[in-house]
Design goal:
This protein has six helices and 17 strands. The protein is of the alpha/beta class and 305 residues long.
Length: 305
């Protein structure tokens, strides 16, 4: 029986593991990919306090090594479901393993909704980004494309212009879906142009992204559009299919958690990008992990007394 099983070994999950292990709680992390989650695929990180410029792989490795130095159990696996037995939980993996634990921390993260176009994987983190706050500084004085027409896309487009980045917003619909105030703010910004009613059909370049092929949805005509980078904001997909029967997610699949990182089920906590929140960053995930771990310890103490 574990004290806590953490599902996901991203920055939030690894921080939670460090805190719970140091609290003398028997801790295990389960991860279906490489430790670090989405962070491990980030080419460069400059905004994590205290480490300066670092690759996502390097920061992931440092965090993971920290967990292992403390003795956190690490288990590779893809979680299939969680069964709530009130005073303990069962974590079932796709390969048939069943682990018992007093508490669960859900740190399974999200996956950016990608563009289904040739070379999208080739240029990920080398011209294609999903985070303007993370990568915008690399495009200072350059020109980029922002894909999407919702609030996230326009907010990020406006943010990019603050670093003197010229932005062309490309949206498959012939209108913008953001709220009226955000649309007006974007349209008033002289650094933002719009190509509405267009979709990206190919990413082009050799070692780095050099252009995109745009297709006019109405006429079907294709043109090549030169750009230094593409920021994709067409939605996130939370990794919560394995808990859909627990009733703790919202309509978009994000987990509903309070300020203590508690879900609607006692003993099940949630942290990081997978929860309802406004800012999804490495530093906010680690903060969630610390808060969640503290409340896991308090829950177990109350359970045992």
């Amino acid at each position: 029986m574990y004290d806590v099983i953490i599902i996901g070994a991203g920055p939030g999950g690894m921080t939670a593991a460090i805190y719970t292990q140091r609290a003398n709680l028997k801790t295990m992390m389960i991860e279906r990919g490489a430790p670090g989650g989405y962070m491990v695929d980030t080419y460069e990180i400059e905004n994590y306090p205290g480490v300066g410029k670092v690759t996502g792989f390097e920061l992931s490795e440092k965090m993971f090594n920290h967990t292992q130095e403390l003795g956190v159990k690490y288990q590779y696996g893809d979680v299939a479901k969680i069964v709530d037995h009130k005073d303990y939980k069962e974590v079932h993996t796709q390969d048939g393993n069943v682990f018992k634990t007093k508490t669960v921390v859900l740190a399974s993260g999200t996956n950016p909704r990608k563009v289904n176009a040739p070379n999208s994987d080739k240029f990920q983190s080398r011209g294609i980004s999903f985070c303007a706050v993370c990568d915008g500084a690399f495009y200072k004085d350059k020109e980029v494309v922002v894909l999407g027409g919702g609030n996230s896309a326009l907010d990020e487009a406006i943010y990019l212009t603050s670093m003197n980045v010229k932005v062309t917003v490309v949206n498959i619909l012939d209108s913008l879906q953001a709220d009226k105030g955000t649309v007006e703010k974007a349209k008033e910004n002289p650094m933002i142009d719009f190509k509405l009613g267009y979709e990206v059909t190919c990413f082009n370049g050799e070692d780095k992204l050099e252009s995109v092929t745009l297709k006019n949805v109405e006429s079907q005509e294709e043109t090549e559009f030169k750009t230094d980078g593409v920021f994709v904001f067409i939605g996130q997909i939370p990794n919560t299919d394995f808990i859909k029967d627990l009733g703790i997610t919202n309509e978009q699949g994000y987990i509903k958690a309070n300020a203590n990182m508690e879900t609607g089920i006692p003993g099940i906590f949630a942290i990081g990008d997978v929860i309802e929140k406004n800012l999804r960053q490495i530093v906010t995930a680690t903060s969630d992990g610390a808060i969640g771990a503290q409340n896991v310890a308090a829950y177990i103490e109350k359970l045992e007394n």
